[in-house]
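Before the break, one more example. Copy the sequence into your notebook; we will annotate it together after we see the structure.
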Amino acid sequence: MSQLPPCPLCGSEYTYEDQQLLICPECAHEWVVDGAVEDEPDAPLKSDAYGNMLQDGDSVTVIKDLKIKGSSTVVKVGTKAKNIRLVEGDHDIDCKIDGIGPMKLKSEFVKKV
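Here is what the structure looks like once it is written out:
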């Protein structure tokens, strides 16, 4: 059994490996495994509400009714957004939703399809 390094933020010894990332279950910090090369160093690492890693071009489904600010329209549960783009900021997903148009979503309210 290989020994994984402790979390650099909280020092937890319960880190685990997920593909090329090491993840701390106590503070949710993610970092790259030593020796691994990132494909895009500036690409944001985001996960959906269930912990699945998201990438540009993925399709996601909304898991909660979301009110659109300044409108009476609601994005319903199960609405699909195709070809997402990850961006920095509070609303970290740019996408286009059929029937509504361009939208910014939070990754915590979507599920990868």
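The CA atoms of residues 67 and 74 lie 5 Å apart. The longest strand covers residues 80-86. Try to locate both features in your own notes.
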